[in-house]
Write a structure and sequence with these properties.
It is built from four helices and no strands. By secondary structure, it is mainly alpha-helical. The relative contact order is 0.08.
Amino acid sequence: MRVEKWIDEMVPMTDKVIGQEMAIVTATRNSVDVRKWVASRLMPNQYGDQPSGVTINNQTSIVMVSEERQRELQAVRQRMIEQQKGG
């Protein structure tokens, strides 16, 4: 139940430092961060990072090919297609 108490303390803690000097704000931020970290470790199902289940990776590769090399590659591709059909 201590984790729940810490969670309940976080918003009032941050509200109290509005307008205070930076050292107080930083100390409070550190205290809140520690409470969040401990809560995420002690109660990961409730306060831990939840996996989104979706991963998106985009990668683009660009290759510059001369017209002559492009014709050669197209010829090779055509031969491979013909071999697959025949064999």
